[in-house]
Design brief:
Length: 248
């Protein structure tokens, strides 16, 4: 039988490769693999260090100067509460702790500096809802009436628009809600005109910067600081621990 294929080309004999990995090649592979693991570990450690490096205490003067509202006596323990009007978790926080916080303020056992942020503006239908709601809160805060402020905050969270939803509240809506919670005519006009939106936006920027100093890449809302340090609000007794009494 012919050893040729139909094409006419001869079929060369298959020879077994004589190449065998040298001991050095094998050792080098393991060394390089070990070095790669060390490099990855070093990068992880450096990454943790890098994310932690900016963390520290917030500037108390900056927190006070850029608060949306300050309520409660100066002699009481002071906390800073950071919210975004569009943040659904902030609404849950307000529902869970708002009444206790209001009672502690009224009883003179707590001083609260509220900070309205606006990082969720782009997630609102209007593109600036958080800033406008922050402006509305600033209008109410300008009266110094912490009770009306608390009621208004609770009310806008009760009708909170959805993130990436198809609609949100207009300035007229916010003004109407404020009036229903006891705001006077001058305050509702301030809200309807958007008179303090720019002020609220600027304060929100600096408040975010202060919060980022403390929380770094974990910055978000709701967040609470006490004496410039983060409070673990997953501990349901966090407020009692600060005020030293049960306000439930």
């Amino acid at each position: 039988m012919s050893d040729k294929r139909k094409s006419g080309a001869s079929v060369p004999k298959t020879t077994k490769s004589k190449y065998q990995p040298s001991a050095n090649s094998s050792r080098t592979t393991y060394i390089l693999g070990g070095l790669a693991i060390l490099v990855v570990a070093a990068l992880v450690i450096f990454g943790v260090y890098w994310s932690q490096r900016d963390k520290g205490d917030a500037d108390q003067a900056a927190l006070a100067a850029n608060a949306t509202m300050i309520a409660g006596p100066e002699s009481a323990p002071t906390i800073d509460i950071f919210i975004d009007p569009l943040c659904p978790y902030c609404a849950q926080f307000e529902k869970a702790y708002g009444p206790q916080i209001s009672t502690a303020i009224t009883d003179g056992k707590l001083r609260v500096r509220y900070h309205s942020l606006h990082f969720l503006d782009e997630a609102s239908a209007s593109g600036n809802y958080s800033s406008r709601a922050g402006g509305a809160l600033t209008c109410v805060a300008a009266t110094g009436n912490s009770q009306v402020f608390g009621k208004f905050l609770e009310a806008i969270y009760a009708v909170q628009p959805k993130e990436n939803g198809g609609s949100d509240l207009s300035n007229a809506d916010l003004a109407r809600i404020a009036g229903e919670q006891g705001a006077d005519a001058a305050t509702t006009k301030c809200i309807a005109d958007g008179a303090k939106v720019d002020e609220a936006h600027a304060k929100g920027e600096e408040s975010w910067n202060q919060l980022h100093t403390v929380l770094g890449d974990q910055t978000g809302t709701p967040a609470v600081l006490h004496d410039g340090k983060p409070v673990d609000t997953s501990n349901t007794n966090w407020l009692t621990d600060i005020t030293g009494s049960n306000n439930s």
